[in-house]
Amino acid sequence: MLKPSEAQDRADALISQAKKAGADAADAIYVCDAATQVQMRLGNLEDVERSEGEEIGLRVFVGKRSATVSSSDMDPQTLSDLVGRALDMAKEAPEDQYAGLAPEELLLKTEPHAIEGDDGQDPDPEFLRELALKAEDAARAVKGVTNSEGGGASAGRSIVALATSHGFSGAYSTSGYSLSASVIAGEGDGMERDYAYDSVRFLEDLDAAEDIGREAGERAVSRLNPVSFKSGAMPVVYDPRVGNSLLGHFIGAISGSAIARKTSFLLDALDSQVFDSSVSIIDCPHRKRGLRSKAFDGEGLPTAKTRLIDSGRLTQWIMESASARQLGLQPTGHASRGVGGAPGVSVTNLHMGNGSVSKTELIKDIKHGVYITELIGMGVNPVTGDYSRGAGGFLITDGEIGPPVSEITIAGNLKDMFKSLIAADDLEYRYAGNVPTLRTDSMTVAGG
Predict the structure, then answer these.
(1) DSSP summary character for residue 367
(2) Coil, strand or helix: which one is 31?
């Protein structure tokens, strides 16, 4: 793989070519990835994959017209042809009054934040095989586990470089490691499946393989012999493993493009109370070893810690330059892009802050409710906020988590759900989006 500085040179060179060829403005993004994945099943090696690749994308502007092209061939003549093709395409494209690079005065001009995203290691397949085997063995050792979908381990590194024709040039590298196990408990029609996994930037931070496997096995066994129950309106409690999906629905609703198109259920919610006053949602792009940490966004703007929900109040939209111009606002440093197409928006290390009660206290007054550990399907309307998803988990009776339930449906409206959410105090930073255990009393549950 190239060094970040070499990747940066490659993006800079393509911008220089585009300018010389007649582009009024341009940006280029270079991405290089290398990954090794090992899959074990029933104690045997099932699959080993090694992938390496590099791509470069170029976006050029001719007046208000633009085009984007990309290539995985870094031959100089190929890249020269790429520039010519991009300019020809741009001249034939329709004008877009909102298109363009980010405002020059907002570009990152200081030394980027150090995010500790790359530990520089490259473990061999044998090491990964041992991790995957230990995870699967620990899962299969749990009493009641009858079959396995396997244990998997992966390691990878990525380099990203971005350059613009109006003065930004930057690059960074990241490493990533993951370990998982998925097993089946029970027999015949009574079989249940569950999993556990961990993903980190530094290998030394990875959970022990035995712990991941044991969690997968215990989760699968705990789901055996689901019970039926009375349907109706009742409290719903989200396990942190699935509760973070609510953050995804929230982010989609506050993206600049959704607001500009008027396709968001939070269209009129800016500066208003969206959640309970005890709730805060924060984006932390500079967290050391964070799974999505980055010093600059997809347009070369600096990233910064952002309190999107402050004491329940929605403070801002998240915008790249195009949607910001359409809304008459400034971009927020949340642009995200790949080698093809114009930038969109995304967040980095997002979390909902802790509440003031324990998980036990959160559920102790629930006479009849459900504790959700699995979500199925994507029945969410981003325009109205209507929410309906298949789910699985456990019955809550008289404040205690009891027997499993499966093939149920939970339904409500995200606006009502957000306003009624109460958070426990058990937040852990395990995923890119993290929440404590969450409770909402504004849903209807239909039993399977």
Answers:
(1) S
(2) strand
Give the CA radius of gyration of the chain.
24
Q: What separation, in Å, do the N-terminal and C-terminal C-alpha atoms of the chain show?
A: 51
pLDDT per position as a tens digit, 416-434: 999 999 999 999 999 999 9
Please give the helix or strand (H or E) that residue 8 lies within, else none. Answer: helix 4-20
| DSSP single-letter state for residue 101 | P
Find out whether 37 and 45 touch, Cβ atoms under 8 Å. no
Query: Strands of 192-200's sheet, edge to edge?
Result: 65-71, 44-62, 25-41, 145-164, 169-185, 192-200
What φ, ψ does residue 26 adopt, rounded to 5°?
-165, 155
- With H, G, I as helix, E, B as strand and everything else as coil, classify residue 417: helix
Single-letter amino acid code for the residue at 243: G
Q: Where are the alpha helices (DSSP H) in 244-333?
A: 245-253, 256-261, 321-327
Residue 448 has pLDDT above 80, yes or no: no
Cα gap 276→273, rounded to integer Å = 7
Regarding beta strands 368-380 and 232-238, do their DSSP bridges make them parallel or antiparallel, or are they unpaired? parallel
Alpha-carbon gap, residue 111 to 121, rounded angstroms = 25
| Burial environment of residue 58 by CB neighbours within 10 A (0 to 12, 13 to 18, 19 or more) | buried
Q: Return the residue matching tokens 């020269």.
A: 80
Long-range contacts of 426-430 (CB under 8 A, 24+ apart): 426/240, 426/354, 426/358, 426/359, 427/240, 427/351, 427/352, 427/353, 427/354, 428/240, 429/287, 429/290, 429/349, 429/351, 430/198, 430/240
Whether 170 has a pLDDT exceeding 90, the answer reads yes
In this structure, the chain runs to a length of: 448
